[in-house]
Design goal:
Blueprint lengths: L11 H29 L5 E11 L2 E11 L10 H14 L9 E4 L4 E4 L19
Antiparallel strand pairs: 1-2, 1-3, 3-4
Helix pairs in contact: 1-2
């Protein structure tokens, strides 16, 4: 005998409302971060963080290198406090991110992504390296 099980799915309209709500929150967060970055170092659009090891007095310490760039990719003038504040802002806004890796934040899109070096595709380094001839 076929017995039907009740299906508990949200109506499509409810899913659309939920998606719109999430999009508004994401846009609001992006705008807040952009405004605060501009207050910290005017013109900042792109923030890169790279964890590094430093040697102070013979002792290895973990540190973070922070780069602030404008819309053209040129460095923004900021003191040490500004760099520290920009990193602190991003750490607070993205608590689940893995800050032990190099990350890049773009204030135009609101995306925080892994910042791994990559060779241009025109150089032909897309797959395994070819042997030298």
């Amino acid at each position: 005998m076929n017995t039907s099980k009740p299906i508990h799915r949200a109506p499509r309209a409810a899913l659309a409302v939920l998606g719109a709500h999430r999009a508004r929150r994401r846009l609001a967060r992006r705008e807040v971060i952009a405004r605060q970055l501009d207050a910290i170092a005017p013109g900042t659009v792109h923030v890169r963080t790279v964890p590094v090891q430093t040697d102070r007095d013979g002792e290895q310490r973990a540190a973070t290198w922070v780069v602030l760039d404008d819309v053209l990719g040129l460095p923004v003038k900021a003191d040490r406090t500004g760099h520290r504040a920009a990193r602190g802002l991003l750490v607070r806004m993205f608590p689940g991110a893995d800050w032990s890796r190099a990350l890049a934040y773009d204030a135009r899109t609101g995306d925080l992504r892994l910042d791994e070096p990559a060779a241009p595709a025109a150089l032909g380094f897309e797959g395994a390296p070819e042997p030298l001839r």
